[in-house]
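Blinded run. Sample ID left blank on purpose so nobody reads anything into the name before looking at the predicted structure. Input follows.
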Amino acid sequence: MAQAILLSAAVFSFPIGIHFIRITFPILRKINPIVAAYIFGLLLVNTGIIGEDAFPVLDTIATVTVALSIPLMLFSVNIRTWFKESGKTGIAMGLAALSITLTLFLGSFIFKNNLPDFPRLSGMLVGVYTGGTPNLAAIRAALSVPADLYLAVHASDILLSALYLMFIMTIARKVFGRFMISEITEEAEMEGIESTEQQFTPLKELFVKGTVLPLMGALGLAVLIFAIGGSFTLLVNSESQTLVVILVITTLSLLASNIEKVRNIPKTFAFGEYFILVFSAATGAMGNFSRILSSTPMVFVFVAFAVVVSMLIHVLLCRIFKIDVDTMLIASTAAICSPPFVGVTAMALKRPSLVAPGITAGLMGYALGNYLGVMVFKLFSLL
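Blinded prediction complete.
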């Protein structure tokens, strides 16, 4: 219990600490706070400060904080802008699903003889990189995947997803923007947000005169939405719980954003950023390098191949279909890392208007992931 309290305090206080450090050392302001959060988490677990016995606590922290961040980041969304954007994001998400399927087909020529469970692995990877971890768990049950193989895939996915997000939040836009269309304008960065105050506000500026009570009200509403979403777990089976909860939370948050008083609460997006930073630190702290590299390294290599090659194919397809670089990155995040991570990428790209369509596209992936995973398993079993 004491360890859980100390660990929770460390993770929740990280955003406060990083802002003080950025104030004290101006040169560190060039480092994205979310990247710093992941590095902080990775250092905790890979230097031995915390062990794998802390993972259940970290998983709980990650689950709660991301569930609270979604409403806070969506309260300020102008849903009319969302409808303009959602079409492209949906197409980009479909291209992401096609990319991972093509990647695994190419991988069959390289890895099939070295991985006896190649069809099962492919089924799980299509599921997790179209939907998310719930799809990975569901496909594992559907295909009777051995526990050690599942854990190797899951551990590899956690680490590679963290590294992938660091790439997305640092240099991906510059790298891919050289040969993809870009829609970055001052207006584009602001669309979907009612006030410039929502833009990446330092934590110390959140709780100033006139914002405390409104923000506490927004947090209370987010908790209520989370509670309502969580109550739906009593109505569905365990495999569908995450999908249903996220769908309910997203829907209720968007409905709340149509209420002018809610939409005009200042700095809700920045408040959501705080919870995203906590979520990022907790997620990074579950990426144990030694565990991943020591157990079935070929599985790690295969998962890395799937992530990197599918992303490159996705970029190529989006360029052909004239999808802009930011929409591609949001859809890729929804596919590779699942919908809850969309807010992280949107915040790093300063494109808050892409949060809602990105989450919606990701939910499409959740819904289709299980079907695609089983279908790929069946097809690859014939190879």
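Unblinding after everyone has recorded impressions. The chain is about 75% helix and 0% strand.
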